[in-house]
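Hey L., structure's done. Input below.
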Amino acid sequence: MKLWYNKPAANWTEALPLGNSHIGVMTYGRVEREELQLNEETFWAGSPYNNINPQAKKSLPEVRRLVFDGKNQEAHQLIDRTFMTKQHGMTYLTAGSLFLDFVGHKQPANYYRGLDLSNAIATTRYKIDSVTFTRTLFASFVDDVVVMRIQADKVGALNFSLSYSAPLPHKVEIKKKSLNIQYEGIAQEGIPAALSLRGQVNVKCDGETYVSGDKLCIANAMEVVLYISLATNFINYHDTNGSAVKQLRLSLNKAMQRPYNVALDKHICAYRNQFARVSFKLAETEGPKLPTDERIKHFHEGKDQSLATLLFQYGRYLLICSSQPGGQPANLQGIWNKEVYAPWDSKYTININTEMNYWPAEVTNLSETHEPLWSMLKDLSVTGSEAAREMYGCKGWVAHHNTDIWRITGLVDGAYWGMWPNGGAWLAQDIWQHYLFTGNKDFLKKYYPILRGTADFYLDFLKPHPVYGWMVTVPSVSPEHAPNGCSSPIIAGCTMDNQIAFDALSNTLKASYIVGEDKTYQDSLKQMITKLPPMQIGKYNQLQEWLSDLDNPADEHRHISHLYGLYPSNQISPWKNPLLFQAAKNTLLYRGDMATGWSLGWKINFWARMLDGNHAYRIIQNLFNLLPSDDVVKDYPAGRIYPNMFDAHPPFQIDGNFGYTAGVAEMLLQSYDGAVHLLPALPDAWKTGKITGLVARGNFMIDMEWEGAQLSRAIVHSHIGGILRVRSYVPLIGRGLREAQGKCPNVFLESANIQKPLIAKGIHPQYPVLFRIYEYDLDTTPGGIYILERGDDNKVL
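Output:
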């Protein structure tokens, strides 16, 4: 569980990330001049605003007429004139860098730098002459500060200075034992700057400290501990009257009262409380003995499958470090950004990327990392109700394809990208999914109004198509993609829109029964659901992306939006609609196996849902193509992973890391269609392995072991009880169940309702039977533990 290297980082995508959701830090591990590049989660450009153009509502009828008349380009131009504003979203800002300059540290021996995922600690170690120097760095989950301990194994051997630099206007005040930072934000797109950042670095040491110009110097020490705190005046999306100085001083005072070892232990304990819930092992290899960048280079040799487990856990690590209760959701780069103007502003792109950030949250047992998203949804439901009312004359709430810390809900970037009124509805489906995973009815009741608000919007926004008669979204786009032969993507009723509308309406309907909604409202949802367009199969036996059959089988566009119904939704499966399942497979084949990094993350999940582990693994191999840095993109056109294992779009986007982790989990466990499928898409390359702690819908925690690419043993922990339908490629028997749960009668599998093997038929006329699957129904109790083992192999086809 370590990323490690035998040389310092030459650039940012070789540096190693740490974070506690509030503060992020990238450490380069340089010997003579170490750099700690910093971020604070609320440090953004601009100030409270919402980019709503009231002219949109006036021009909406004409836009719809143009779309229905087939004049899409004219509609496009009218949207650009009347729906857009001058504001296209604010940028997430860097917090500058802290530099440590070490006197005489040249030509090190025995160099090592690494990131231990099991403890969330980064270490740099090397020898100069006869002295070993060690730097230990962590972002405390308890004290809300970054702590760095610098040690020498010789008394008085530590001599270095601290300084700070940033690309925006800033002031630095140096005191004898502290460095104080005042860093100003920026105005952007006509929105004045409301946020400024304050930082403070306090020093504890056993040597001398003194000030020299713009540097704080440490001399003749053996051990030094730095405490780094950052804060802004941000309170929420409409209030910036907080006290940054008060926040950072509270954190520093709390942290510095603890002995270092106590602070370290508390940090590790808090972090492990989340990270240690899941373990994942494949066959052991010699790979971990090589530096991580060398392992990436050699991954395609097939001898280092444990690197796949490392990247899986790295995704969980990054989510823990960038999204914690009380904080902001992980943005396009998590919390790590070195630029004033980051790629795509490092905003929340909610036509796929932000949603992908949270795909691993429930299934990999990190449910609390979802909480910042609930907070953002609450905000968006407020700002989005203004957008729904003022732009479309609709009830409910709406958000388009981008938002930022100010929770904007209007169009961003232009009609081609921004005319997509489904971003809020897609995000809100995580509310229903969280309920399915946890069974928490109190949570569902609390957030039901937000979920309902997305359905209310569709009830007003959907209009009858003059040709097909179905109720459709208009205007809209299939994200960032135009139909074959069309210059504009503006359209009515694209497949993804229909699928998201179906989820918003049907999941609200299902939730309404639980919270006790009015029957009249339930009837209105039912009626609208029946009027939505069905998914259609086109002339190439593909799932159509649009109402008309306009797909191009040679098109390898990175967005495969119309397969939302396959993943993350549950509208397509081999059991419910095998013909659509086959059409979705053809769409995937047409789109190809290569794409941008985040798109590869989505494709892993798609092929897992296709129950094709070997194809999913092929996508994983495509992801494991090293890109040394953004400076050499032309020389590495297939590069999709940086030396520090960040995902490469390129440039860096963290969603690819999260998509990969979710995809691996989906290969090993699926629960989207009313059953828990064990090892549904296990590739041949992972013949032997073990994973513990994955979570299935229904709040079942699953541990599994397998040999010869077949399940040998599974343990099911039932947290809330209920019927569990288990699905497996091998027959199962129950062993040791009474010992595991003595208080629970009738838990033996032999006494459960054992179904006949389920055979998938009709997936393709030429191949009526692809596999045999065994299903078992177990009546579980809260706290019950169920041990399942492999049965008679002779019964397996």
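The two ends are 37 Å apart (CA to CA). The longest helix spans residues 371-392.

-- N.
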